[in-house]
Write a structure and sequence with these properties.
- The protein is globular.
- The chain starts with a strand and ends with a strand.
- It is α/β, with parallel strands linked by helices and about 260 residues long.
- α1 runs parallel beside α2.
- About 20% of the residues lie in helices and about 20% in strands.
- The strands form 3 sheets. The protein has a 6-stranded mixed beta sheet with strand order 7-8-9-10-12-11, covered by helices on one side. A 5-stranded mixed beta sheet has the order 6-5-4-1-13, with helices on one face. The protein has a two-stranded antiparallel sheet with strand order 2-3.
């Protein structure tokens, strides 16, 4: 199983008054070339596409849609591609304890947009999935993906319970866990100060350990790193470009890994 992973593009990032969108789009083109050459079985984007609320939202949404469509053409039906929502992708930051402010009203099952990826899901290419809530996806050859995006607070997600519920698949499954949550022991960078948004939701490591995952990848942190845990090493690919001056010495890139069958 060959897996290609990227995260934390922040198309709307501005450094000292300089927009970074063109650099991120250049990286997107690079990732497409990598996918053409490496022919991954699975492509993962771990979230934080852009922070909604500016007059350029439609531009960033168009960037995402065009990239996902291109990746779908590159991978064709032979491979899957999955896109997670991150904390910067939330469209609502309301609390369920205040129903008068809750856009879902009194009906918790009412489906409303909760991330910048909602509209993209309408024309998702074959083999592609958007994950705004915890999702288990069966993959070929007994592989399975557990996607744990950063969920909007209005959804009231219990991540540990979500892992337990979605792990009740074939016990032979070889699990890959992809998330955009907070990792105890991970090295915080300047993004925790200069690009902070939302709240911290912990990755339920004890529950994930019960799956004996073959790979755990997590977004959210901009510095590439590997964090040991009770569930195994958590690989953080980091952001594609240096978003702040404090990141000037950080390596940047993506993750391409072959997992043994």
């Amino acid at each position: 199983m060959r897996v290609l992973v990227t995260s934390d593009w922040h198309l709307d990032a501005v450094t000292a008054g300089v927009p970074r969108r063109e650099e991120v789009l250049a990286f997107a083109a690079k990732i497409l070339r990598v996918a053409i050459d490496a022919k991954p079985d699975l492509f993962l984007h771990l979230g934080d596409w852009y922070t909604p609320g500016s007059m350029r939202d439609a531009l960033y949404a168009s960037d995402i849609s065009r990239f996902i469509a291109a990746m779908g053409r590159v991978l064709l039906p032979r491979a899957g591609h999955v896109y997670l929502a991150g904390n910067h992708d939330e469209l609502d930051l309301f609390d369920r304890e205040h129903p008068n402010l809750d856009p879902a009203g009194a009906d918790p099952d009412r489906r409303l947009p909760v991330s910048t990826l909602t509209a993209v899901d309408v024309w998702m290419p074959v083999g592609g999935r958007v994950c705004e809530v915890p999702t288990a996806i069966a993959l070929p050859n007994d592989w399975a993906l557990l996607a744990l995006p950063h969920c909007a607070p209005v959804l009231g997600i219990d991540y540990a319970q979500a892992v337990r519920e979605r792990a009740a698949m074939d016990p032979r499954a070889k699990w890959i866990v992809a998330s955009h949550l907070t990792i105890p022991g991970a090295m915080l960078g300047s993004e925790s100060r200069e690009l902070a948004r939302g709240r911290d939701d912990l990755l339920p490591i004890d529950e994930i350990a019960k799956l004996s995952p073959r790979l755990i990848v997590n977004g959210h942190y901009h510095r590439p790193q590997v964090v040991p845990s009770a569930a195994g090493d958590i690989v953080i690919p980091g952001s594609p470009v240096r978003m702040t001056f404090a990141e000037r010495n950080d390596p940047k890139g993506y993750l391409l890994i072959d997992l043994p069958e």
